[in-house]
């Protein structure tokens, strides 16, 4: 009867989803950095901090990006930010030049200072060695306080629902790297962009939501303008996660696999790429309302249109499109990959086959 065939269908789907969720956990766990790797990275950070203090005694070297937000994979690079607490400090580009010279003299790192980049940084790397089979790659920037704050925001989201959020994010990072759609320099999207897509989906697309909107929750006590703004950007968000856990619980019970299937479906079919802006702060916004697409000016300012093919608002720098590097071809490729992933999962193969196909290089 149609009724029993529907039931068979439903139970086959449930089996697929349970098996796939388990496979996703197992897959991701194997890609986490070993304790050893974390320890080596922390040693490197301390060593570099000691050296930098010979130039600027009042400086601190903090890690941000994946090493600090809970979304790090094995051998991921290390993002470091130097903060200088004294009033009279050198400019970022002078610091880059001086630190470059110092590290070249005093360490075994390969050093590449980029003092004239939009954000001046020193790039460092260590060749692989027996204790460090993949070497280390590291960027040191200066005074990038917004990056430290957005790292903390992502970390807080990861802490609210560690299992589902981290599994989804880590899987999508691996998937996007293996499918070759994780390189802003080649017209596709950064890891940071993919993380924002996941969080946007969990706050604003899923109903009931898996995550609350930390930037829109009422503060516990009055807050002053200067406590919450960095360079004119409002960086306030609710960060007392312990308290949040006592007061807020998602009523969404979807498994990781359910969420992954919906994620791919949403971004292959439903997200309005031509007009929409994904904003974790404000939900689905319009390109028009942000001045990110101007039909009339399209002919004259061709490259501004090119910069806004795909729009993801930065959580704090709201004038900044995190997906600005995505080109027409890049977006075509990314959407093609979302569709491919949806197609694979719709066939409901065995979980191990599904993951192998999804991440095929
Ligand atoms: P992997 O290096 O691939 O492991 O990922 P990741 O999590 O370190 O992300 P990514 O290297 O893309 O970015 C590292 C950090 O740099 C992010 O957490 C942000 O803090 C910052 N960042 C990266 N891209 C942008 C950007 O376009 N705008 C801003 N404001 N910050 C960015
Ligand atoms: Mg990184």
UniProtKB/TrEMBL annotation:
<protein>
    <recommendedName>
        <fullName>polynucleotide adenylyltransferase</fullName>
    </recommendedName>
</protein>
<comment type="similarity">
    <text>Belongs to the DNA polymerase type-B-like family.</text>
</comment>
<feature type="domain" description="Poly(A) RNA polymerase mitochondrial-like central palm">
    <location>
        <begin position="20"/>
        <end position="158"/>
    </location>
</feature>
<feature type="domain" description="PAP-associated">
    <location>
        <begin position="255"/>
        <end position="319"/>
    </location>
</feature>
């Amino acid at each position: 009867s149609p009724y029993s065939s529907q039931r068979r269908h439903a139970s086959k789907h449930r089996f697929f989803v349970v098996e796939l969720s388990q496979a996703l956990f197992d897959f991701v766990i194997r890609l986490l950095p070993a304790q050893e790797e974390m320890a080596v990275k922390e040693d490197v950070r301390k060593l570099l901090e000691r050296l930098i203090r010979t130039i600027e005694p009042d400086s601190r070297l903090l890690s941000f990006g994946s090493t600090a937000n809970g979304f790090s994979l094995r051998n991921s690079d290390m993002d470091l930010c130097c903060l200088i607490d004294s009033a009279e400090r050198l400019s970022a580009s002078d610091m880059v030049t001086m630190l470059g010279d110092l590290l070249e003299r005093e360490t075994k790192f390969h050093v590449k200072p980029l003092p004239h980049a939009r954000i001046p940084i020193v790039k460092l790397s260590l060749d692989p060695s027996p204790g460090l089979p993949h070497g280390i790659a590291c960027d040191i920037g200066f005074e990038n306080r917004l990056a430290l704050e957005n790292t903390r925001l992502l970390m807080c989201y990861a802490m609210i629902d560690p299992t589902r959020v981290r599994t989804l994010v880590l899987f999508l990072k691996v998937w996007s790297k293996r499918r070759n759609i994780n390189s802003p320099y080649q017209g596709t999207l950064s890891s940071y962009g993919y993380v924002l897509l996941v969080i946007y989906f969990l706050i604003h697309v899923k109903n009931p939501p898996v995550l609350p909107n930390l930037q829109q929750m009422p503060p516990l006590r009055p807050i002053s303008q200067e406590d919450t703004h960095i360079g004119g950007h409002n960086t306030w968000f609710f960060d007392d996660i312990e308290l949040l856990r006592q007061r807020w619980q998602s009523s969404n019970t979807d498994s990781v696999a359910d969420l992954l299937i919906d994620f791919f479906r949403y971004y292959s079919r439903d997200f309005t790429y031509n007009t929409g802006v994904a904003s974790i702060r404000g939900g689905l916004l319009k390109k028009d309302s942000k001045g990110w697409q101007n039909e009339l000016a399209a002919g004259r300012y061709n490259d501004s249109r090119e910069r806004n093919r795909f729009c993801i608002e930065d959580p704090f720098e709201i004038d900044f499109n995190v997906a600005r590097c995505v080109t027409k071809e890049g977006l075509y490729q990314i959407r093609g990959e979302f569709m491919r992933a949806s197609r694979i999962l719709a066939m409901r193969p065995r979980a191990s086959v599904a993951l192998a196909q999804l991440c095929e290089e």
